[in-house]
Amino acid sequence: MLEVNNLYVYYGVIEALKGISFNVAEGEIVTLIGANGAGKSTTLRAISHLIPYKGQIKLNNEEVRPDLPPHKITKLGIAHIPEGRIIFGNLTVKENLELGAYTRNDKKINEDMEKVLSVFPRLKERLSQLGGTLSGGEQQMLAVARGMMQNANLMLLDEPSMGLAPMLVQEIFDNLVKINKAGTTILLVEQNANMALEIADRAYVLETGSIIIQGTSKEVAENERVKEAYLG
Length: 232
Ligand SMILES: Nc1ncnc2c1ncn2[C@@H]1O[C@H](COP(=O)(O)OP(=O)(O)OP(=O)(O)O)[C@@H](O)[C@H]1O
Ligand SMILES: [Mg+2]
Fold this sequence. Notes:
232 residues; alpha/beta; Rossmann fold; 6-stranded mixed β-sheet; 10 helices; 10 strands; 37% helix; binds adenosine-5'-triphosphate; binds magnesium ion
């Protein structure tokens, strides 16, 4: 579904991505793990065209034109849930969810809202609450739920577990599995390698802008270097 070939990103003279290649097949959960500053968020930003890049990005075997603006990438069926629970604090939960569907003009938005709320019952109880008054974990769920409202084929998730207590992390990851089983392909960026490897089919390890290890989650979890550096 997604194929990335020789992706380079520069921030000024800093080479943040040094020609990485990876792919995500339809129906998979693929995780990109790595330490702070490895280039994980940069990878997702390049796929979403939020920053300039060199290299090739293919979606369903067709090259994505590098000059497409970010909203056109959304239209291609890619939802990007960025780092740090970015929701609208002054809007209600329901309004936040409706905004997730702003690029759509089909008639199934209400139906999808019901589906999304069945995955996130905590949000269903809080539809009229202001986003800014949700707990950190609930805000993270709202960010993921809003991404789901785009009805995307491919979801790019940037550290959905960040800053959350283990129980909420578990809940978020359980929900990701549900979303995947319902037909959404997932590219998951995580520092929490333990959890990410548990739900992912395959994994890539990113270190200072290069992919150094790749394989099935089982293979990567058994890799000595990964055990030492990323698994507690
Ligand atoms: N706008 C920017 N200008 C300059 N350098 C940047 C910019 N954004 C990111 N970088 C640098 O690029 C490198 C990769 O950053 P990136 O945010 O992709 O890392 P990451 O793997 O997502 O890390 P984290 O786990 O901390 O979120 C880092 O060294 C970072 O300082
Ligand atoms: Mg990041």
